[in-house]
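If your schedule permits, I should be very grateful for your opinion on a structural question. Please examine both parts with care and let me know of anything in them that strikes you as inconsistent. The record follows directly beneath this note:
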Amino acid sequence: MKLVIFADYGLDDACATAYILNNRAEYESIDIIPIGGNVESGRALANARKLLGAARADGIDTSGVRLVDSTAFSQPFCRLPSVHGNDGIGDILPNLFSCPVPSIEYTEFLKELAGEYRILSLGPATMVVHMLGNAKVMPCRPTVIMGGCTREEPNYNGREFNDALDMSAFEKLLGYNHVAATLDTCRHEKFNYINRHFDGTRLFGKLVNRSIELAAARHNDRCYIYDLIAAYALITPEEFEVKTAGTVHELHYTGK
């Protein structure tokens, strides 16, 4: 099965991507589409290249991975350096490694998309909805979305960040078959990393530790790496159940 990831790179997107690459047994190929959101789409693409270079240097298997360049399309973004660092991914990855994966233009990607595939949406829904409206085939399983706050306190102008940047697209995305790791899903004590520390010699641990450092500088009692939790739900769906809240099919952690 193919996996298509929409990510607005974003330190939390980087954590999620590293986690998926370390746990990708089910997926024969992964197409990563950097999009606008936490940073502008061009910066997201540059960050994805830097991340994948660091992943290869860390010994992570990047075979079957491609980058899809969507920068020709207008996309919303809003930088949040206190959350993601000045470069979007925590200011910890050097530009020392060339990108080890091939790249394809988004329009060409749409033409060749076929067979069984899964979608993971980690940013605003602009490009996800565009793909779903223009692809010749549909995903074989529900799209996993990060977004759709229904009860917990919102984190951006009264909404969840990914919803707020393109509400129209997000509402359209909820009309497709989906499950959502909402803020409500993520704010479970299982996922509060504030007092944890990971192996900083490996890429995943380095990214998570930086997320914890930035979170601790804002508040000393919580660190929820939202996109990482959505990736966790993608890889281990048996640990979640789905409950419907309005138009959102919301994931709830069960620990099973």
Summary: The chain has a mean pLDDT of 94. The CA atoms of residues 180 and 250 lie 5 Å apart. The first strand starts at residue 2 and ends at 7. DSSP finds ten helices and nine strands in the chain.
